[in-house]
Design a protein that fits this description.
By secondary structure, this protein is of the alpha/beta class. Helix content is 39%, strand content 21%. Strands 1-5-9-13 form a 4-stranded parallel sheet, with no helix packed on it. A 4-stranded parallel sheet has the order 2-6-10-14, with no helix packed on it. Helix 5 packs across helix 6.
């Protein structure tokens, strides 16, 4: 069927199964207050403009089947205050800004997708809901807002474990750059000899720093490298300084330093344990559920 004009079904009750499969709605489709007592099918439908299901009730919800063609929404989808018993829908059809933000609707969709064993779609829906909640209904206190931001970017609210792995990899590279500075690491050249600073070109220092950084991040003890008590110089400021004894201007050099390399290694080790624990928790949470769905 093709609905070329606005299609309105406000307050209509469908006592038997409703079949809208493969229909095309060229204008706005309004099902506000409509009640579906039995199955309603929108398989392969195409909505060219906004579609609304405000305050409607669906016994089985929107049924979608990849085999027969996915439902397509080209504009805003409004399910605000709609009540779903079960929603079987291709999440890719409504994700993003097409779906008007509503906590109740997101909760219904997430629960239905989990009940159907479609855990990846449920995780994507949960991530989108939390991300949009932070932006559209942000916490009032600043520390909750900061925590929401950190949990989104670090692990995707617990449903994107490989984000943690990306942070782990990035941290190793950053700390490797720190430990590749001259005077950062001591090396034991031969067994039973004391550790000492060894002058090397940057490429060799960076290779050793990556080796040391990975071992520190994973808490694997290595006896041939150790951090020094030298301070990490973040940057150097050169300013003119007048010498009264010499009665002339000289170039003054001021080093803006940070932690010692020994303390920096301690910080990296703590971060490594935290990220490793977070990664394992998220990975277990995600893949244990995925395993149940097989």
């Amino acid at each position: 069927s093709k609905f070329r004009e606005k299609c309105w079904f406000p307050g209509v009750t469908f006592f038997q199964g409703a079949e809208f499969s493969h229909s095309e709605f060229f204008k706005e489709a309004n099902f506000n207050g409509a009640e579906f007592k039995k199955e309603v099918y929108f398989i392969g439908c195409s909505f060219k403009e906004e579609v609304q299901f405000n305050s409607g009730e669906m016994n089985l919800g929107i049924v979608d089947s990849a085999k027969d063609g996915n439902i397509k929404f080209n504009d805003i989808v409004n399910f605000t205050n709609a009540s779903f018993k079960l929603v079987n829908i291709d999440w890719n059809a409504v994700k993003g800004r097409r779906l008007i933000y509503s906590p109740n609707v997101y909760a219904s969709i997430i629960k239905s997708l989990n009940d159907l064993g479609r855990y990846r779609d449920a995780d994507d829906a949960y991530f989108e809901f939390r991300s949009r909640s932070r932006k559209e209904a942000p916490p009032k206190d600043w520390y909750s807002l900061v925590w929401e931001f950190i949990t989104e970017k670090s692990c995707g609210y617990g449903v994107k474990p490989f984000r943690v792995f990306q942070w782990w990899f990035g941290m190793v590279i950053i700390f490797s750059l720190f430990f590749s500075r001259k005077g950062a690491l001591q090396e034991r050249i031969q067994e039973n000899l004391p550790l000492k600073l060894v002058g090397k070109p940057f490429s060799n220092r960076f290779r050793d720093a990556v080796y040391f950084s990975i071992s520190t991040f994973t808490k694997i003890s290595l006896s041939n490298f150790a951090p020094t008590d030298n301070r990490l110089v973040v940057f150097t400021v050169k300013v003119p300084v007048y010498s009264f004894t010499e009665k002339k201007w000289n170039r003054g050099i001021f080093n803006i330093s940070f932690l010692t390399f020994r303390l920096l290694a301690l910080v990296e080790g703590i971060l490594g344990w935290m990220l490793m624990a977070l990664f394992l928790v998220c990975l277990g949470n995600v893949y244990i559920r995925y395993g149940k769905g097989k």
